[in-house]
Amino acid sequence: MRNLDDFAAALSQITAQAARAAATSTQTRTVIDAAASGGEDAVRRAVAGMSTADLQRLKHQLER
Fold first, then answer.
1. Chain-centre distance for alpha carbon 57
2. Organism's domain of life (predicted)?
3. Is 20 in contact with 50 (CB distance < 8 Å)?
4. What is the pLDDT of residues 30-61, one digit of tens each?
């Protein structure tokens, strides 16, 4: 039973990481599109609702 619990915990962690990566990719695309079409004000609106962690992931993604 311990192995199954370990597997479930690992799967949950990987699923959460994948979900964060997908959200970051979507947010990155949204910010890039806003910058390309609307400039600074559009970017401000795109990032207005993001958490600090989201903004840090976005920054890391844009620096790649």
1. 6
2. Bacteria
3. no
4. 888 999 998 889 899 988 988 898 889 888 88
